[in-house]
Write a structure and sequence with these properties.
With about 270 residues, the chain is mostly helical. It has one domain (about 30-265): MetI-like fold (Orthogonal Bundle), CATH 1.10.3720.10. About 75% of the residues lie in helices and about 0% in strands. It has helices at about 1-30, 35-40, 55-95, 100-110, 115-130, 135-160, 165-170, 175-185, 190-205, 210-215, 220-225, 235-265; strands spanning about 230, 235. Strands 1-2 form a two-stranded antiparallel ribbon. The longest helix has about 40 residues, at about 55-95. The chain is globular. The two termini are about 35 Å apart.
Length: about 270
């Protein structure tokens, strides 16, 4: 009975944050099926009294161009991040060089650095080299933060790969590039998957870099496109909330389908058997 009591107690503890997260998402989701008057009805409707898909349809049609831009930016950030972070993590994990410790400290420092601290310097640099109003400007700007993050995640995992495998490959005549491609990458695939998923989510949700570097509406992602529903004379709350739900579908699906993979990639190599 005592064990059963403790089980119920921990179940309640687990449900509290779950409800706190799910309840706002539920009201955002059903708001897209209601008129503005129904959204502000008191007491609030637990279920849409007259549900309609019209607002979701209008929001999707309005945001379709921005959706394409979000996909381009997110995939671009993923490619740049992995191209830089993978060899960087390999070098930090398996090689000894003079600036190894300062490099690790700089990577850790970037994780507490606010994005606003680098916006102006990056804007001045990108403006000089013609990367304003360009996908590459936003991709490189977001990558300033995703590359250190992915490097830290990958470095922790690659350190756990036995160095003896590298030594054996070197004895057999393999070069460091061959070792990296044939040994490190396959063995580090759980961490690579984790870093890729988290990088995509971070890039998908970016707002400040897109707002600062993209002035052309045809290049802006969905995080900026949602402003279409905020006008001079009011806010189209039903379409705004419907659009917000469409915008959140990608990270929600990733969290639901890849949640276990993310945890496995972050914790793999943490314990020695």
């Amino acid at each position: 009975m005592e064990r059963k009591h403790h089980r119920w107690k921990w179940t309640v503890y687990a449900l509290i944050p779950t409800v706190i997260v799910i309840l706002p998402l539920y009201f955002i989701a059903i708001a897209g099926f209601q008129s503005v008057a129904e959204i502000f009805h008191k007491p609030p409707h637990l279920f849409p009294p007259n549900p309609t898909l019209a607002y979701y349809r209008d929001a999707f049609l309005t945001l379709s161009l921005y959706l394409k831009n979000s996909v381009i930016i997110a995939l671009g950030v993923l490619c740049v991040t992995l191209l830089v972070a993978l060899p960087s993590a390999f070098a930090l994990a398996k090689f000894h060089f003079t600036l190894k410790r300062p490099a690790s400290l700089i990577l850790a420092f970037t994780q507490v650095l606010p994005a606003t601290a680098v916006i102006i310097p990056l804007f001045l640099i990108f403006n000089r080299i013609g990367l304003i109003n360009n996908y590459l400007g936003v991709i490189f700007g977001i990558s300033v933060f995703t590359i250190p993050f992915a490097t830290i995640v990958l470095n922790a995992y690659i350190q756990a790969i036995p160095t003896g495998l590298m030594e054996a490959a070197l004895i057999d005549g393999a070069g460091f590039l061959r070792i990296f491609l044939s040994i490190i990458l396959p063995l580090a695939s759980p961490a690579i998957a984790t870093a890729s998923i988290l990088t995509l989510i971070l890039a998908w949700g970016d707002f400040i870099f897109a707002l600062s570097f993209l002035k052309e509406r045809t290049l802006q992602p969905m995080s900026i496109g949602l402003y279409n529903f905020i006008g001079q004379y009011g806010v189209q709350w039903n379409k705004l909330l419907a659009g917000s739900m469409i915008f959140a579908v990608f990270p929600l699906i990733v969290a639901l389908l890849a949640g276990k993979a993310i945890v496995a990639g972050l914790t793999a190599g943490a314990f020695k058997e």
